[in-house]
TrEMBL record:
InterPro entries the record matches: 6-blade_b-propeller_TolB-like, Glc/Sorbosone_DH, Quinoprot_gluc/sorb_DH_b-prop
Name of this chain's protein: PQQ-dependent sugar dehydrogenase
Pfam families reported in the protein's UniProt record: GSDH
Keyword Signal: yes
Keyword Signal: yes
Keyword terms, alphabetized: Signal
Domain Glucose/Sorbosone dehydrogenase per the UniProt entry, residue ranges: 42-337, 389-466
Signal peptide: 1-21
Length: 576
């Protein structure tokens, strides 16, 4: 196995060498050349293609903002914020020294460039985590009884000085945004509402209810909290009397008793925000991590509620009786030992939320109730055979609106962490639904963190993590991860189809095809993996799993296997 990983790393390094022109082909016949623009970065979090034709980048752990020349890879640091981080680099300190204190998920995160950056409005907006409640406490610095890790983030506007190539004159918009070691989201986006530009900021639910934050209350449904929300700020201060409210638009939907930046509620971990005009109407989209399944693509609207943690994915009932997490900590509340609420009925919860509730546009992927019950039950029991599950862990989002690549116009582009790929979903003509099947590009042993598209739409830039794991569904880094902390360039050079396969075109395999695929999947598994995959299946499917391990089947066994193969194949795919 170790030799295989070494060979894979060598081959990938050769393919990505600038000296060797390598072409990759997409599922629709699109051809791209690939190369490494930059490497050995300190966890690039945000890459934005600027109006100056440079890539603007934040490094999450390095706390640096840089401009990168995409042609040469050369970069200059515009700003070093490490002195504004009032806690050490815990990721570099042995646990025996710092007590095991956590690094926040992210660090220096989102970046947004003013649309008139080079035309008299030289503003760059940044968000970063600046303080940790437990920094001076013994041990991990966490609150007791799995109460969580309390960090605080800051939203700041800087001015870009072209002559000195620096960001200067910081102006704080808000420095009390709650943060955590989990689910900080942290994307920034400038987008118009009624013809005026605003700054949107996604804040996750801070992992409240899972892992070290299992006892932390979840506030995604509370309009008085910024946790689990999309926020909206002014790009410039208004005429309000107090500095704290001048950056908050007066017409935000929840500014009743006091002004609030909350724009929408019920989000879990929206690491992707994107805006596009589709069918003549501008729309704001978000990509979100699901708990065990149901990664979400949402159409974000003013004052709307996206359900978390009461509805996960569609209100289809697959989480009925379950929760967004489970733990072995019996001192935590509920049957699943978490502050995430137990979901009696997703449909009833959606009805109770009323007219403001919104289902997602699409999910990746809705697993069935039996499989999810197995996952949570075994997690609660801390079972070593806890099954894995099929999810993507979407880390960002872009809407491709150019015409350069056939069939791509008005597609959602979603980089993923869990299995290193770019997912493409074609929108319908008015941008209100997904019209195509899921298409996968640039699969590689990396964790894609962010995406930028050149102004002409011919080049795609993907940033990769330096670290190999985080938490939750995204923790399973692609085996043999290489090119850590890189920016990769994919240039479209030809090919492709003007049409996209629709969801209705998806073919259900025949029993014979399902049996062949399921048999191949089962027999390729190593003994330990077989045990885990078998444990993740509903009890009724486990004898069929065992049957497919036999080298030869009798005629009766083959008939029985064909009858049950489609259901077994579905169960196996859920654990891919």
């Amino acid at each position: 196995m170790q030799l295989r990983l070494v060979v894979l790393s060598i081959l990938w390094g050769m393919l990505m060498s600038p000296a060797i022109a390598q072409t990759v082909t997409g599922p629709q016949g699109e051809k791209f050349t690939e190369r490494i623009v930059a490497r050995q970065l300190s966890d690039p979090w945000e890459i934005t293609y600027g109006p100056d034709n440079f890539l603007w980048m934040t490094e999450a752990k390095g706390y640096r903002v840089s401009r990168v020349d995409p042609a040469t890879g050369s970069r200059n640091v515009l700003l070093d914020l490490s002195k504004e981080r009032h806690f050490p680099r815990y990721d570099k300190i042995p646990d025996s020294v710092d007590g095991g204190k956590p690094w926040p998920q992210g660090g220096l995160m989102g970046l947004a460039l003013h649309p008139q950056l080079l035309q008299g409005q030289p503003y760059v907006y940044l968000t970063y985590i600046h303080s940790f409640e437990g920094a001076n406490q013994p041990g991990k610095g966490s609150r007791p009884n799995h109460g969580g890790n309390f960090f605080t983030a800051r939203l700041v506007r800087y001015e870009y000085d072209v002559a000195s190539q620096t960001l200067r004159r910081p102006l704080v918009l808000c420095d009390t945004i709650p943060a955590s070691n989990d689910h900080n989201a942290g994307r920034l986006l400038i987008a118009p509402v009624a013809g005026r530009n605003y700054l949107f900021y996604s804040v996750g639910d801070l992992g409240a209810g899972q892992f070290e934050n299992g006892g932390r209350p979840n506030h995604a449904q509370s309009i008085s909290s910024y946790e689990g929300k999309v926020l909206r700020f002014n790009l410039a201060p208004d005429a309000d009397a107090t500095p704290q409210t001048r950056w908050i638009p007066n017409d935000n939907p929840f500014s009743t008793k006091r002004q609030s930046a909350v724009w929408s509620t019920g989000h879990r971990n929206a690491q992707g925000l994107a805006y596009a005009v589709v069918g003549g109407t501008g729309r704001l989209y978000a990509s979100e991590h699901g708990p065990f399944s149901d990664d979400e693509l949402n159409l974000v609207e003013k004052g709307k509620n996206y359900g978390h943690p009461l509805v996960l994915g569609f209100a289809d009932g697959n989480y009925n009786g379950l929760a967004a997490a489970a733990s072995e900590h019996t001192d935590l509340p509920g049957p699943w030992h978490t502050t995430y609420p137990t979901i009696g009925s997703e449909q009833a919860n959606a009805n109770a939320l009323g007219a403001t509730y919104r289902d997602p546009l699409a999910t990746l992927y809705p697993l069935n109730h039996d499989f999810l019950t197995t996952v949570l039950t075994r997690t609660r029991a801390h079972d070593p055979d806890e099954p894995t599950w099929n999810s993507e862990a979407p880390s960002s989002l872009a809407v491709y609106t150019a015409t350069a690549i056939p069939g791509w116009q008005n597609s959602l582009l979603i980089p993923t962490l869990k299995r290193g790929k770019l997912v493409r979903l074609k929108l319908n003509d008015n941008g209100t639904a997904v019209a195509s099947d899921t298409m996968m590009y640039f699969k590689a042993p990396v964790r894609y963190r962010d995406l930028a598209v050149s102004l002409d739409g011919t080049k795609l830039y993907l940033a990769t993590d330096s670290a190999t794991i985080t938490s939750g569904p995204s923790q399973d880094a692609p085996k043999g991860t290489v090119c850590k902390g890189c920016i990769l360039e994919y240039t479209y050079v030809g090919g492709g189809l003007a049409t996209n396969p629709s969801v209705a075109d998806r073919k259900t395999p025949s029993p014979e095809m399902a049996l062949r695929e399921a048999t191949t999947m089962v027999q390729k598994l190593k003994p330990k993996d077989r045990r885990v995959k078998r444990a993740g299946l509903p009890p009724a499917q486990r004898p069929m799993f065992d049957l497919l391990l036999k080298p030869v089947l009798t005629a009766q066994e083959k008939t029985e296997a064909q009858q049950n193969a489609p259901a077994l194949l579905t169960g196996l795919r859920q654990q891919m």
